[in-house]
Design goal:
alpha+beta, Methane Monooxygenase Hydroxylase, Chain G, domain 1, nine-stranded mixed sheet, seven-stranded mixed sheet, 20 helices
Length: about 850
């Protein structure tokens, strides 16, 4: 049988290799002295305009299936007229046009099931295996053009056309095809390609992360009102972001390629989000600097300054919120290890600042009303001394009446005798709460803050003032003594020439305490005369504050409000609702019937200033029984670090303690209490009547004979109250054990709020348990909190949330933390199969 004639291939006369001739031989071109530089390094342009190419075969056509590797001498470029999304965004940043976005309100909710991804036909990411499958079937060659004569070219083109051009975006198809070509024909160069890509990615990451470190300096400088440093840091940050953008723009085709590789694309998207977030933060910081600069005019009244600053806040916040979304979606592990901790710190700083700015922006809508923009406003300022702890923060030793209009102080009156100046002026006489009989036979203004709900106490203060001075006021502002330290750090030293004193942030509390207790004015019943003298000076300095300190003042006030160092109440309904929405009203929070609640409230009665030396620890435990019932135990330890006989602070701490629990809680036992001697209690004045507010807000519902614990219902809570006496240098521990009015288990057929959100945590038998506790802080009290929740061994923990909380096998625990603000902790449990 005659053998089949072999196909003869044309060979190059120069290198004797098949597939090309001497005119197009790469080796000949490389050593030729007659060719130009352009000929030595031929360029291939990948056009994506969709225009039909000519049928003429280019002299620079490279047959990729040749054994000779030509890619080492090739360069890839793209049309210079093309603009990508980075250039567009960069132009937007340079224009500094504000972008307004709707503010997203956030609140605590149980975790929801992850939503299904929404993918449209044009947005679908390419499947790499599907992308390369048709090409892997062809082993002898890869078609370049239809005019090149090669076996099965038309068939392969039909497959490609059907697979790509009808199903996916043609730009992504071209990128995918290029990836396939590299992987099939050039394995060694693919490694180099990946290394170059990795090097570029690391440079982009380093530049963008260093930009964020500069932004951190800028943000801190803004908070501290160092505008030159803030501007310099922004400039440094933008330079780093520009370097990162330049690196990205140098690899446009690489961007197209990596979009076809999901793993690599994910990292690149994270880096891009870093840069976009950084530029948004830089733009937001620029608005803040501009606002502070425009308000930097001593001739402008504080109210006008706040309005100017508020306007620029409205431009800055949408940029910050968009940046926050991008930052929260960035995976920390893509950053170099040395940058991970600083970047995490920056996210924390930025998140806190954004929350504060949102609060300030919302509050600005009420600033005009609060500062007398709608007419004269008259407020009662009460100064609470937390060294003598009371329900809302401290004893009402002093007060002032402030009149303000159009942002200017009209008058301020601080009685030299303090709160006792109102004694004897009451037009009515009422009985005090029973524990207050230890100090007084009648209820007077200085003891008005008996209720831990500040609104109730503020209304009672206004009631006493109205019945003493026959004057109505527009609100109450309670200020703890710790706020003076904050204010003095901003207004600077204050001179008291009459007493030859200089007060600053470090000594003001000590000097005031000593002068009030031992000063010459005490002999003539004017112990608070020093406050009358320096108070107007402090307020005047505050209202004439340097413009660059306006924003730091707002940050300090916001922190003081969040920590209940300042609590406010306004008779204006709209303003009061706004204040309460921020959590600045000192209200007792109403909770659902199936949520645990705890607030420990202390009232120092006849214990002098001993609370300055008291440290308190609260330990809470919830024990869940097999039937789902919950037994709580709350242990409160009070440690007196003072020394017997120590001036001001070495007295015995006599404290009436109340714990507020969910309404309907049942006291099981209480121990560790010590009552003051009965002989020290006074009988109510004969002419005193029962106070209507006290009778309505504090309803006695029981009394535990074994421990002497009083049981009342107040503000939608069940309250257990008793006495704790702690001597200097010792500690006292008391314990309340009670049953909660609800059960922890949630059967499958139970209807409850947000049930859909808990579906992902349901076990096969549908038995679920959810536990949540809200703990509120008492203003002025130095206390820590820790807790543990224990379930039967037949249950296992699934999810928890809350500061310092850690899952255990059958529950969770909260490590000891300072209780500086209110807190919420949550737990979800499943019954074992």
């Amino acid at each position: 049988m005659r053998a089949k004639k072999r196909l003869q291939l044309r060979r190059c006369q120069f290198c004797n290799k098949p597939g090309h001739n001497k005119a197009t031989c790469p080796e000949f071109l490389l050593i030729s002295n007659t060719v130009s530089e352009a000929q030595k390094k031929p360029k291939i342009f990948f056009h994506t305009s969709g225009q039909k190419t000519t049928d003429t075969v280019s002299p620079y056509l490279i047959t990729l299936h040749n054994t000779r590797n030509h890619w080492q001498e090739m360069e890839t470029v793209s049309p210079e007229t093309e603009n990508n999304e980075w250039e567009k965004f960069y132009e937007e940043i340079k224009s500094q046009q504000p972008v307004f976005e709707t503010k997203k309100e956030t609140s605590f909710v149980l975790p929801a099931e992850d939503p299904e991804p929404i993918v449209s036909g044009n947005e679908e990411e390419l499947d790499f295996e599907k992308l390369t499958a048709p090409l892997l079937k062809k082993t002898d060659s890869i078609p370049v053009k239809e005019s090149v004569s090669q076996p099965q070219t038309k068939i392969v083109q039909d497959v490609i056309k059907k697979t790509f051009w009808q199903e996916i975006n043609w730009r992504k198809a071209l990128s995918g095809a290029m990836v396939a070509l590299i992987l099939l024909a050039l394995p060694l160069q693919t490694k180099t390609f990946v290394q170059n890509l990795r090097h570029s990615a690391e440079k982009i990451t380093a530049d963008s992360t260093e930009g964020f470190l500069a932004l951190q300096d800028s943000t801190a400088a803004i908070i501290s009102a160092d505008l030159p440093m803030a501007q310099d840091s922004i400039t440094q940050a933008l330079q780093k972001f520009n370097d990162a953008i330049a690196e990205i723009q140098n690899h446009r085709i690489l961007q197209a390629l990596i979009k076809s590789i999901p793993i690599v694309n994910s990292e690149v998207q994270n880096r891009q989000k870093l840069i976009i977030a950084g530029q948004k933060i830089a733009l937001g910081n620029t608005y803040l600097i501009k606002g502070i600069s425009e308000a930097n005019n001593a001739d402008i009244v504080p109210l006008k300054r706040l309005q100017i600053l508020s306007t620029h806040l409205n431009f800055a916040i949408p940029n910050f919120e968009q940046a926050s979304e991008d930052l929260n979606s960035v995976t920390l592990e893509i950053l170099p290890f040395e940058y991970q901790a600083p970047f995490k710190d920056f996210k924390t700083l930025f998140g806190g600042m954004l929350n504060d700015l949102n609060n300030i922006s919302l509050l600005s809508k009420n600033i005009n009303e609060i500062f007398g923009g709608e007419g004269l406003r008259r407020y009662l300022l009460v100064f609470q001394n937390e060294t003598e702890l009371r329900s809302t923060g401290g004893f009402l030793g002093s007060f002032a009446v402030l009149e303000i209009k159009d942002g200017k102080i009209i008058s301020i009156d601080i009685p030299a005798g303090g709160s006792y100046d109102l004694q004897g002026q009451l037009s009515v006489l009422v009985e005090p709460p029973t524990p207050l009989l230890l100090s007084n036979r009648k209820w007077e203004f200085q003891d008005a803050n008996w209720f831990p709900d500040f609104k109730a106490s503020a209304e009672k203060m206004l009631w006493f003032y109205r019945h003493s001075r026959n004057v109505t006021l527009d609100g109450v502002i309670a200020i703890n003594s710790s706020v003076l330290t904050r204010l003095m750090s901003l207004v600077g030293p204050i001179s008291d020439e009459q007493r030859n004193l200089t007060l600053n942030e470090k000594n003001i509390l000590e000097i005031l305490q000593k002068t009030v207790e031992e000063g010459e004015e005490k002999i003539i019943n004017k112990p608070k005369q020093i406050l009358s003298d320096i108070g107007p000076q402090i307020l005047a300095s505050l209202f004439s504050l340097k413009p660059e300190n306006t924003l730091p003042l707002l940050f300090n006030l916001n922190e003081a409000l969040n920590q209940k160092e300042i609590q406010v109440y306004f008779t204006s309904l709209f303003t009061q609702q706004t204040i309460e929405s921020f959590g600045w009203g000192g209200r007792i929070i109403q909770t659902p019937e199936d949520r645990d609640y705890l607030m420990v409230v202390n009232s120092n009665i006849q214990g002098q200033k001993s609370d300055a030396q008291i440290k308190q620890k609260i330990f809470h435990q919830a024990l869940v029984d097999k039937d789902g019932s919950i037994i709580n135990s709350v242990t409160v330890t009070r440690i007196h670090e003072g020394q017997p006989g120590q001036k001001f602070y070495g007295q015995t701490n006599i404290n009436y303690i109340r714990i507020y629990t969910p309404r309907g809680s049942e006291l099981i036992s209480a121990r560790g209490f010590i009552w003051p001697d009965e002989k020290y209690f006074r009988a109510p004045s004969k002419n005193a009547t029962i106070d209507e507010d006290l009778d309505e807000l504090e309803k006695e519902i029981g009394f535990d004979q074994s421990s002497g614990t009083r049981i009342t219902e107040e503000f939608g809570k069940t309250v257990f109250g008793n006495w704790v006496i702690t001597e200097p240098g010792s500690a006292s521990t008391v314990e309340f054990i009670y049953r909660l009015p609800f059960k922890a288990f949630v059967p499958q057929n139970t209807d409850f709020n947000n049930k859909k959100l808990l579906i992902p945590f349901l076990s096969s038998n549908g038995q679920l348990s959810k536990y949540q506790i809200l703990v509120q802080r008492q203003s002025g009290c130095r206390s820590t909190f820790e807790s543990q929740v224990i379930y039967p061994s037949t249950w296992e923990s699934t999810w928890s949330d809350g500061l310092n909380s850690t899952l255990a096998l059958n529950g969770f625990f909260i490590a000891e933390i300072p209780l500086q603000t209110d807190g919420i902790w949550s737990l979800i449990m499943n019954e074992k199969k």
